[in-house]
Amino acid sequence: MEGNRHQARGNSAHHSHGDEKFIWKYVFSTDHKMIAKQYLFTGLFMALVGAFTAYLMRWQLAYPNTAAPGWGVVTADKFNMLVTMHGTIMVFFVGMPVLVAALSNFVIPLQIGARDMVFPRLNMLSYWVFVASVVCLLASFFVPAGASACGWTGYPPLSASQEYTGIFWGVVLWILALALEFASFTMGGINYLATFMCARAKGLTYSRVPLATWFLVGASLAFFFSVGPLIAGAIMLLLDNVAGTGFYLPQKGGEPLLWQHLFWFFGHPEVYVVFLPGLAAVLEIIPVFSRKPIFGYRTMVWSMAVALALSYVVWAHHMFISGMDPRLAMPFSITTILISVPFAIIIFCMLASLRGGSIRLATPMLWAVGFLVTFLIGGLTGIFLGSAASNIYFHGTYFVVAHFHYTFFPAVFFGGFAAIHFWFPKMFGRMYSERLGKIHFWLTFVFFNCTFWPIFQIGSGGMIRRIADPSQYRILDQFKTLNVFVTISAFILIAGQIVFVINFFWSIFRGPAAEANPFRANTLEWSAASPPPHGNFTAAPVVYRGPYEYSLPDRAEDFVPQNEPPLAQAEGTA
Amino acid sequence: MIVQTAAVENSGEISTGKLGIWWLIGSEIMIFGGAIGSFILLRLAHPDWADNAGHLSVPIGSLNTLVLLTSSYTMVKAFENVKKRDRKKICRFLLATALMGLVFLGIKSFEYHGKFSHGIYPNTNLFWAFYFTLTGLHALHVIAGITAILILWTFGLRDRLWPPAPGTGTASPGSPGPGIDIIDISNFSDPSIRGGIIRPNVNMSIPGPRWSGGGRPIADRIELVGLYWHFVDVVWIFLFPLLYLTA
To answer: Of A209, A282, A502, A510, which is the most exposed, with the fewest CB atoms less than 10 Å away?
Structure first.
């Protein structure tokens, strides 16, 4: 595979990396594409760990206090640990590396026509700091008293003092893992933003940048300006644990709500950090598979900007019942409802882009449409939680669980699988199996909905989050069958991912070779070889047009790559 | 649609290094903003913390402020001499800056020692928790700044700030002055740039036989470190009145 990669490169006379040592090529690589793959594989591995925690929790909820195969009885304290680690892993160690890091690393330089990131070694460092973070988190399972059990949000006082959960090392390692992750993604963010600003190809103005790059940059921005206060908060939480300070401990004069404010000031933009890259992939796929220009390019970029700005002033909608000043509920309800406007605009623009197109439901497009459908449900149920009046009833129930799985799952997995399939030929130089891809999509789509849709009902019926044994509450007896149904669906959902694993690895090694532009798309990454060699492009690309010029009436082909020079007469009429 | 041929808006106007430092400072502002903001909110709710703040010595704090502000001045002088290409003066001013940073840390340690000897620790109460956290976090940044300055100082001592003679050597022959860093990544015809592929260099921060970083002379980094150093200075200008002068 590596051999043809270098054959494809034309003017590689002045450097030869064919004989590059394994360690520099695959381990300490500074090539943005290799780093993207490293992030991707690390994230997918962590998804297995996250899925295992989900399996154990669902087993306990359907068949309380029976031995789960492969583990044993899930006791109440272990259940708390599983809840905590499932959230932490899925958001920070699957969503972030797969969507933010892997996608940004792979897509941004290729789409803007750069040879690499502007700080390649910083890029390598950011990945290895992330690895350290993963090691910290996984190690926390094996320290005395086990991993943190304070919830993925780490609310004090539970997380601030050992006396509440009996866990010291688990919490310290959890904080350290997050700190390292934040350091890693700050380095990554600096890199993506600087690359985007400085290394665009000639002619690639801001209004010609593909939407995927715009939305990935937006995700980095959202992360960049929200994570700082949480880093400060995490330092204080760490000191509470190791130095005996009392920032968050009421008995020492501290304020537990301070953490909630710092956490959610980051936590809400973080939703968009994970969501925007998913959206980025979908926005790139829709015009390609409906052979139409995207509808409302500028509108969507500006909507994203407005949503980002608003995302910094909505955080307290996570705290309506926390005991904060109730007078804050109204302004935060209003900003929360407001933020649905730019996202509604984006969704409508996507629907308008689909309308009247020659839609081809290949695997990436299936994931993209699946994303639209499922995320819409997540977005609409968010309105119930965003307005304080109904939030007080729903908060802390499984309704919230269903809601954020309907937002995160489409973003991370529907968006992620859309991206993986769409850029698979570019990433690995081979085609995935369309048949396995479709089987995998339908399995995931059907059983995702079977898993999470009933949870809305269970939640509005009054099942509280994070309870380890529903059989202790008589009011929950009515949901016993439904809980078993959800659990079985979840198991099939997890098992269905085996199809993806088979497709993924079989295609990497045995898939048919991919041509440079198998989907006949316009953006610059498709003008490079599949997979692109070191340095990506054989000659500096020059951009002459916007990214979504499909089905132009005066052209024989139904697409016009961005780097195709204009025809003399086309220039006059356009 | 009008075809624009040279339309990358900002390439060449700002170096990637400077952009990176500004983004770094942006993220640091958010970190200190979160910590200082938390302190201000709790401080407003606790007028009684004035008693604790009274234990801090304003003269010593003022002296430290003076030292740090002066070090920013010498940092600017070092940068000024980059333009004049005066290597000796650059080294002198860099060393002066680093030494003043060390004096600042020394005075800070003296203050810490005084508190410890009076039985005041981070866990004494919330005010002291904030005091030690904020000043400690700031001190870590001072240490980082001093380290960076001393690295540049060793580059200066060994005459590695510029390529041996301007326009020759290994630093991008034929490249125009500003915007060289862009060429590092996206110019496809420059054979000196190893094709934008940076081989992992094990001696990353050790001055080796490298005359340039990313196509720019090492001397340019004095401005970048200077920006960071001023930022560290500005943080102290917030911390000093908030902690010392609110008694």
So the answer is: A510
CB-based contact, B216 to chain A, within 8 Å: no
Long-range CB contacts (< 8 A, 24+ apart) of A552-561?
Answer: A557/A520, A558/A291, A558/A520, A559/A291, A559/A520, A559/A521, A559/A522, A560/A522, A561/A517, A561/A521, A561/A522, A561/A523, A561/A524, A561/A526, A561/A527
In whole angstroms, give the CA distance from residue A237 to residue A259: 8
How many percent of chain A have pLDDT more than 90?
87
Element (H, E) at A218: helix A211-224
What is B143-177 written as a DSSP string?
HHHHHHHHHHHHHHHTT-SS-SSTT-TTS-TT--S
Task: Provide the residue ranges of all domains of chain B, joining segments of one domain with +.
Answer: 16-76+88-157+220-244, 162-197+205-217
**Cα–Cα separations (whole angstroms), residue A54 to A22, A51, A334, A402:** 36, 5, 34, 14
Mean pLDDT of B171-199: 36
Query: Distance between CA atoms of A105 and A117, rounded to whole angstroms?
Result: 8
How many Å separate Cα A302 from the centre of its chain? 21
Rounded to the nearest angstrom, the minimum Cα separation between B243 and chain A is 17
The whole-angstrom separation of Cα A32 and Cα A11 is 20
Residues 50-109 of B with CB under 8 A from A: none
Helix spans in B85-203 (H): 87-117, 126-157, 180-186
Q: Which range among A224-233, B34-43, B144-153, B171-180 shows the weakest confidence by mean pLDDT?
A: B171-180
Give the residue on B whose Cα is nearest the Cα of A118.
B185
A31-573 fold: Cytochrome C Oxidase; Chain A (1.20.210)
- pLDDT at position A555 is 86
* Residues forming a β-bridge with B213: B216
**A and B: number of Cβ contacts within 8 A:** 201
Q: Does B206 touch chain A (CB under 8 A)?
A: no
| Count of other CB atoms within 10 angstroms of residue A408 | 21
Query: How crowded is the C-beta side of B246, counted as CA atoms within 13 Å?
Result: 19
* B16-76+88-157+220-244: in CATH 1.20.120.80: yes
In single-letter form, the type of residue at position A472 comes to Q
Q: Are A83 and A152 a contacting pair, CB within 8 Å?
A: yes
Please choose, from the candidates A102, A136, A155, A17, the residue with its C-alpha nearest in 3D space to the C-alpha of residue A465. Answer: A155
